[in-house]
Amino acid sequence: MNTNWASFGYSRVTALLPQIELGKPLQNADLLIQLFSRESKNGASVIFTPELSLTGYTCEDLFHSETLLQDSEKGLAKIVQASAQFPGLWVVGAPLRLQDGRLFNGAFAIAQGKVLGFSPKVFLPNMGEFYERRWFVSGRTLHEMIHHPVLGDFFASSQQIFSDGPIKVGIEICQDLWAPQAPSTGLTLQGANLIVNLSASNELVGKPRFRKKLVEVQSQKTHCAYFYASSGMAESSKDTVFSGHSFAFELGKLVAESEPFNQSSDAFTVDFDFERILNSRTKDICFLEAVEYKGAQAILRPSFTPNSSELFELKRKIEPYPFLDEIPDYEEVLQIQSHGLLRRALSAQAKTLIVGVSGGLDSTCALYVAHRTKLLSGGKLKVIGVTLPGPGTSEKTLNLARALLEEAHVDLTVEVSINEAVKQHLKDLGKAQSDRSVVYENAQARERTQILFDLANEHQGMVVGTGDLSELALGWCTFNADHMSHYTVNSGIPKTVVKGLVGYWSEIAASRVLKAVLEKIVELPISPELLPPGASGEIAQETESLIGSYDLHDFFLYGFLSGGYSKEKILALAHLAFQNDRELRDEVERAHEIFFKRFFSQQFKRTTLPPGPKVHSVSLSPRSDFRLPDELK
Length: 633
What we know:
Elements lengths: L9 E7 L8 H17 L4 E3 L17 H18 L5 E9 L5 E9 L2 E7 L22 E6 L3 E6 L3 E4 L2 E7 L9 H7 L4 E6 L7 H15 L3 E6 L16 E4 L2 E5 L9 E7 H10 L1 H9 L28 H4 L4 H18 L4 E5 L4 H16 L5 E6 L7 H13 L4 E4 L3 H10 L9 H21 L2 E5 L3 H6 L12 E2 L6 H14 L3 H12 L19 H5 L2 H14 L3 H11 L4 H4 L2 H14 L1 H5 L26
Parallel strand pairs: 1-2, 2-3, 5-7, 9-10, 10-11, 15-16, 15-18, 16-17, 18-19
Antiparallel strand pairs: 1-14, 3-4, 4-5, 6-7, 8-9, 11-12, 12-13
């Protein structure tokens, strides 16, 4: 599939990681020109270097040398001249000395043969191994037009956004991010959607984790792309060591990271999704209110011509299982589910948790959550496991359900056959016993729900719902049957996560028999079992053969809810995400069509959804996250 990713809101940004020579700006300028030119030809719209990369960060008292400062100006002039041949924005870390003697550490924004502006470093570290105030002054109050004899006229201010097309670039210099009030916060509230951080951050034990956490949080709370690039091993090792550790976050998610101390690469490229960033800002009223409260402080927005190259190769990994990628630990998911159920049960003064167990994934997961909730209750709750074999139930799943309930040590097991009740119900409706219509299927689901609620009445209990987020998205449930419960513990997690949770239970199971039962449940094909088994007892209905793989549906669901992506963009991303999975990649088109047709037409089931805990960053609850008209098609 030959996709131009630029048409879906992606733009290319590159961090240069040059092996510079300390104190030799003219030589470094030649190297940077080569790298800038190459990456511009590769489609990058924004290219930037680490901090003071033209001279080297660790030049120390050489910053008081006329030779270094004058050669730096000459090197910048060469870069400016070379930029005239290329589109896009080039950002170079270099010093700027004014006629009054003030020397600033900062970044020159260069485009199409001119300096667009200079962004100075605001917070100068002067503690520990850092003593920048020996040479530089803070750019906090710098906000003026510069008439430079070598570089021409340009504005100097930390409050500048360089803008054109979908990209609005703010510049931050190393320590500025570490300050309590980072300049990037103000820049993003004024419209910057990309922050490039030119850094020279030395390596200490634990420091890489901390600076990544800083960028993660800043990119998330300011809804931006944040690209951090640090000086490499070419810097001095006299008292500090530099690794070139660079990384990129988008909306709080790590999208790319360079390997520290890697000397084999001189550039690091990421394609950011600026369409998604805009969608994220639009949905966050707190961010939008902060934009309003920011005030009327003027920020210059010098423009540049973006690179119009088509992007046929996306420079970022597309995660095929985005819901699983959100989960650091299955225990975290179980804590949310079980504590939600506990609070609900105690509030309702329930004494029991009623779980209908079919031998499938969803009910197994719900049973596990009920079991964990019972432990949390300190003896206040008991668990009743119910098997409800009917016309569509296979011996294999029924035996698995029985074995599961035995090994899970529920407080009470109840088995009620619905065969005769379904026959009578169909007879009352005037249906032939050979009828296999949707009435036949749904009658079984509703009979089971009726029994579960009756048992809840009998045992002063709550019916624990088993349906998951994926089934809600597709409407793959019987209205007022498995669709209904007192509390639905799986409604916040998709099928891929349900499967992962059951697998997790299997991994930590104390009993080898329980472990074996759970492994068999994970291996079973997903089925509602509402049609009679085959002649050999095999399952007659396999859900994924009817509607497509849940792996794909969960991918579509996440893209639509989290990113607000168009159908076309989701389809293109799915082809890319599953390109190495032969079975799934051939199914993408069909599953994509089924997903969107069912997603909109089945909203009426979600509108009457019982309560359940939100687990992921997105949900389909009609009371909190997601509201749609029921009449959409």
